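Postdoc handover notes: sequence design on the structure in folder B. Input tokens:
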């Protein structure tokens, strides 16, 4: 009952398939109360992106996702002016649009969509570290002021509701000090084995305990292999358990014996797969 009351008051209390620890819940809720962006760092597969989905689900808010690209400019996230369509309409004259109305050719980007939405949204800005520092700082200026200008029509777009903002980074590039100064920060560590068992239990409520324990133990042993560029993450473990469960000939004791079927579900790069296969073969010999 208390969880439902807190949820009604706008508190994030977790989601059906997202295992939440107390520290993360606290920083999410304080960020929403302070109306500050929450910057999440951590290696791929730690649930940074899925947190935004969980917040939107738990609080019944629409989710808008801006996937940042290396060549992206801030204006791409605000709005786009479709000059090509306007030119074609003016040349061929077979459109119902009035080419003299430039507004008809303005389309909101993801940030613009969050600003103009009729209800408060969750705005996920995914992998901000791909962008240059100008994008970061200009974006936060816009988000501080909660407005931006469409220069083609001399119009200011002001946010109807301040979005709940989640920003993720894989820490591949340092973020600027002005950017960091305007965010709350949380590092999502890779789950330890007990936490991972909780996560697996959420996704597979009826999983056999022997399969759970042997799969998790094998998974962490494989993550310790040297020279692996892309270690398997939670997503790969979930898919791997799903694959094992679908194999009618598989027995959990095979994992305890050092047999590791479906390595290609866990390792997606050729060299990583090679290292893992060699490690499995050595363990089986001894």
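Designed sequence:
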């Amino acid at each position: 009952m208390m969880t439902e009351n807190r949820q009604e008051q706008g508190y994030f209390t977790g989601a059906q398939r997202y295992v939440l620890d107390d520290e993360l819940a606290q920083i999410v809720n304080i960020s929403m109360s302070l109306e500050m962006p929450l910057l999440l760092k951590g290696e791929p597969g730690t649930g940074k992106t899925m947190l935004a989905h969980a917040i939107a689900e738990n609080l019944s808010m629409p989710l808008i996702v801006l996937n940042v690209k290396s060549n992206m400019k801030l204006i791409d996230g605000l709005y786009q002016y479709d000059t090509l369509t306007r030119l074609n309409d003016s040349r061929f004259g077979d459109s119902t649009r009035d080419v003299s109305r430039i507004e008809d050719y303005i389309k909101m980007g993801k940030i613009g969509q969050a600003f103009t939405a009729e209800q408060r949204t969750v705005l996920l800005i995914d992998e901000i570290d791909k962008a240059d520092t100008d994008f970061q700082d200009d974006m936060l200026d816009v988000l501080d002021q909660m407005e931006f200008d469409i220069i083609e029509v001399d119009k200011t777009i002001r946010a109807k509701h301040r979005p709940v903002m989640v920003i993720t980074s894989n820490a591949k590039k340092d973020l600027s000090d002005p950017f960091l100064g305007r965010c709350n920060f949380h590092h999502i560590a890779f789950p330890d084995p007990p936490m991972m068992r909780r996560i697996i239990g959420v996704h597979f409520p009826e999983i056999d305990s022997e399969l759970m324990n042997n799969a998790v133990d094998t998974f962490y042993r494989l993550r310790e292999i040297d020279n692996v560029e892309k270690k398997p993450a939670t997503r790969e473990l979930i898919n791997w358990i799903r694959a094992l469960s679908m194999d009618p000939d598989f027995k959990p004791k095979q994992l305890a014996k050092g047999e590791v079927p479906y390595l290609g579900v866990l390792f997606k790069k050729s060299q990583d797969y090679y290292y893992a296969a060699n490690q499995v073969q050595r363990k089986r010999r001894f």
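Context for whoever picks this up: Residues 193-285 form one domain. Don't rerun without checking with the PI first.
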